[in-house]
Design goal:
Length: about 190
C-alpha cells in the first residue's frame, strides 16, 4: 500500500518552532500520555539504553525518559533544537540534520521515530537504513498519530515480515489518538 507523504519545507518548520506553535502543541496535557508510553517502553526495554531520537523536535521524549545511558536527538529544524538544548545533561547531544542523509557515529539500543515516518516517501526504507545502527537485540519505537498514512505504514511493516511487533499500545485522549509500537528486526527478536 502506498500513501502521499506530508511535506513541509525547512523554513516553515523553523518559523513554526520559533513562533512557539509547536511548543504549545507538544507541551499540551493531551500529549503527556503518549510521551509517558514512549518513555515507559524505552525504560522497560533497556533501563540504561543508548537512544537515538530521530525527528526529536524540541526534545520532549528526552524530557520524559529519565533512565538512559546516552541520548542523541536529531532534527531537521535548528529552531527546534535550540529549544531542546535547554536544559540538558552531559549525556545528551543534539544534531541538526536531514534524517535521510544523517549517519550516526555509533549504534544504539533504541531508535525512536516519534511522529515522523509519514513525512518520508519510503518510511520502510528509512527503517531499513537505520536498522544498521541498532545494537544486537536493539529495537525501534514508533509513535504514529492515527491517520490514513499511519495505517498504511503499520500495514506495510506487518506485511514486510522484516520486523516483529513486540508491543503495541493505543493511546486515546479527547483530542488525539496514537499507536506506539516497539518493533524489532527479525534477526534480533527477544522475548520481554
Amino acid at each position: 500500500m502506498t500513501y502521499k507523504k506530508r511535506e513541509k519545507a525547512l523554513d516553515v518548520w523553523n518559523k513554526e518552532f520559533e513562533s512557539g506553535k509547536w511548543t504549545e502543541v507538544f507541551e499540551a496535557l493531551d500529549e503527556v500520555p503518549r510521551y509517558s508510553v514512549v518513555s515507559g517502553i524505552a525504560q522497560a526495554f533497556h533501563e540504561s539504553a543508548a537512544i537515538l531520537d530521530l525527528g526529536c523536535g524540541q526534545g520532549m521524549i528526552m524530557k520524559y525518559v529519565h533512565q538512559y545511558g546516552h541520548y542523541v536527538g536529531v532534527d531537521f529544524s535548528e529552531e527546534a533544537l535550540k529549544l531542546a538544548r535547554h536544559p540538558t545533561s552531559d549525556r545528551c547531544t543534539f544534531i541538526q540534520s536531514d534524517l535521510e542523509y544523517f549517519t550516526p557515529e555509533e549504534q544504539f539500543d533504541l531508535i525512536i521515530f516519534n511522529e515522523i515516518l509519514y513525512y518520508f516517501d519510503h518510511p520502510l526504507d528509512l527503517l531499513e537504513r537505520y536498522r544498521t545502527y541498532l545494537r544486537p537485540q536493539g529495537a525501534f519505537i514508533l509513535s504514529l498519530q492515527d491517520r490514513e498514512a499511519s495505517t498504511i505504514i503499520r500495514h506495510n511493516i506487518k506485511e514486510s515480515s522484516e520486523y516483529d511487533i513486540l508491543s503495541d499500545v493505543r493511546i486515546t485522549t479527547e483530542a488525539n489518538s496514537w499507536t506506539v509500537s516497539l518493533i524489532q528486526p527479525q534477526l534480533y527478536v527477544v522475548k520481554m
